[in-house]
Amino acid sequence: MSTDTTKPADWKTYDQFALGIATNRLPATDALAGQTLRLALPGFQLTLQPRAQHTLDWHEDGARGGQGQGDWYEAIEVAPDTFFLDITQASRPSEALTVVLNTRTRRVLAIRCRIIDADEAAGQPRVPQDFWPGTLEGGTATGSAPHATRDLIGLRTWQTYSPNHTYEHTYLSAERYAWQCLVGVQRGHGDVDLASYWKFDDDQYVFTFREFLIPVASVFFFDFANGRSTGKFLGLTGTGAIANNPAGAFMRKASQTFYPPEFGPV
After folding, report:
1. In this predicted structure, what is the pLDDT of residue 5?
2. CA dihedral defined by 52, 71, 114, 60, rounded to 10 degrees?
3. Which of 111, 113, 222, 246 could form a disulfide with 22 if both were Cys (CB 3.0 to 4.6 A apart)?
4. How far from the centroid of its chain's Cα atoms is residue 169's Cα?
5. Which pLDDT score is estimated for 95?
6. Cβ distance 53 to 59 under 8 Å?
7. CA 187, 190, 193 angle in degrees (round to 5)?
């Protein structure tokens, strides 16, 4: 697999393709401001205290531990009672944390993206991801827990982030997806990258990917009922700066491949 040292000469940097990619994103909300959210996650508890104007206090109990005051966050209500929280922590500058939570079912999925150096990556994507399904404390969780899924395998979608950004996705297997740019500065470019798929609720999925050619990864919440995709990118710009950028799209299903029982993707 190619690494970022063998990318084509005209390959766009993260900041070049990301400019304007949040045009069709849902608006942020202060609906969670003033609340204390205690998340029970595998091996640790994370307490979030959102405030207005994109600031948040947090405390983490567990092997790593840690706390912060006045760190940046953004919350978007991506479906009824369901929020997409993106958080950067000043004490962890090479990381970003995304939390999807439903305040009614009390189900939670937390995803950490972190940038590592090329030597540690050893040919793998430089922005790996960790996934932690959990619950929102203070009540009984209902419905199914977030879980890895094969539901999207074989699906092809069109993602329109702005008048200047349309991408086609094909979800190839439980480990990889393919993309190509139909409209935008990356038009004609495409690749196959590592991907993960989690089912959060009916018609609701968390899709993430990790690119090989440039150091960037993404987390998206898919709401198929309303045709909206809400997400973020964490990566390095062309100058090597860390950037955590929002994104959002109008999403349409294009086609579906069905595999016979005797063979199929991993």
Report:
1. 52
2. -100
3. 246
4. 15
5. 98
6. no
7. 145
> In terms of Cα–Cα distance, which of 230, 13, 238 is closest to 100?
230
What pLDDT shows up at residue 125?
97
Q: Within 134-185, where are the H helices?
A: none
Contact 170, 26 (CB under 8 A): no
Q: Measured between alpha carbons, how far is 50 from 28 in angstroms, rounded to an integer?
A: 13
Report, as ranges of residue numbers, the positions in the chain whose pLDDT lies below 70: 1-6
Distance (Å, whole) CA 129 – CA 215: 12
pTM for this entry: 0.94
Residue 28's nearest CA partner among 47, 49, 50 is: 50
pLDDT in tens, 133-162: 999 999 999 999 999 999 999 999 999 999
C-alpha 121/C-alpha 111 separation (Å) is 19
pLDDT at 20 (0 to 100): 86
Structural domain boundaries of the chain?
A: 14-137+145-256
CA 198 and chain centroid, separation: 11
Alpha-carbon 171 to chain mean position: 15
